[in-house]
Amino acid sequence: MKRVFLIVLDSFGIGAMPDAEEFQDTGRNTIKSVSKSREFYMPNMASLGLFSIDGVDCKEAVENINGAVARMTESSKGKDTTIGHWEIAGVISKKPLPTYPNGFPKEVIEALEQAAGRKVICNKPYSGTEVIKDYGEEHMKTGALICYTSADSVFQIAAHEDVIPVEELYDICRMARKILQGEHSVGRVIARPFTGAAGDFVRTANRHDFSLEPQEETMLDILKQNGKEVLAVGKINDIFAGKGITEHVYTKNNDEGVEKTLEFMKRRFEGICFTNLVDFDMLYGHRNDVHGYAKALSRFDNQLTKIIDNMREEDVLIITADHGCDPGTPSTDHSREYTPLIIYGNRVRPGNYGTRPTFAQIAETILSYFELSLNKEGIEKIECFYK
User: Fold this and answer.
1) Which domains does the chain have, with CATH numbers?
2) pLDDT digits over 293-313, tens only?
3) Chain centroid to CA 65: how far?
4) b/e sequence 114-147, b meaning 16+ C-beta within 10 Å
């Protein structure tokens, strides 16, 4: 019974892509920054081949690696979660999703105010932790929605859980999702609940993303249509707006993401378990926390032992990322970087498979394992399985 466990280490980039200058990301390198930390220790990933990937020179490579590895190039026009995951699943986005460096236009804000019955404050790019520091008190007094964005294609709404209950905030985000269509089709509308008192506001784990549906058929759709299970862990269900998913579970942090993945590993199914581990990006990359990022990577590396121990004869483990978010630079935004690809299992032929032109080759490679295909011109599988 064939099973693939696809784990995305959210934002674990491995060096600037050739077009990084177009994205103001020249020289950014997430793995190089975090590898300088005293907390960085990844012997299991080294054994699988992390430091044998093209361009990764921050640590010494292992001579005989146990996995198939490659450096993945994003061919979509973007560097955000939505576009990155869609490309991993086989959809190449040639047109970037809209971003709003000067805030959202008047017609969008007025439509949301009318639909929600609440005023909007802020409406500009902002750090998620700083925005509640600066606007939290006003929100508490007035009940106004704290709306903000970032360098990514997102519309974020922050609200205190005592002022606007979580379910009401989700409903408001659904209203925003309906408004943000057409030319304003941002990748995600994100609910950002927080709690606490003035001067001590903290975001809660009740974040929820409301994404666009992929405009094309994905690997997930093809697997589902062919009777395979598509199990989603973490924010995967949100990223794909539920499309192509047969079962999903949300998680509060990386540890819970690994725990839920291990629970699925103990079940009998044929298909894919698709997991996103978001802490690398959300807690450390965006907050320029090099040591925190390195410590989280080291913890995942330690947890890999249990994941590998639970693999069965026909299981395949795939580890990759969706973009970069270099915590060693002044910027708190995502970065246009190559990503790692590591494939491991009894059916996998170890080796370095070079630099690949698109994340979409991951989808085609997974589908080929199930004797299926995207059937898209120019997207090839990686020939890493034993015949």
Assistant:
1) 3-95+212-369 (3.40.720.10), 106-211 (3.30.70.1250)
2) 999 999 999 999 999 999 999
3) 26
4) eebebebbbbebbebeebbeebbeebbeeebbbb
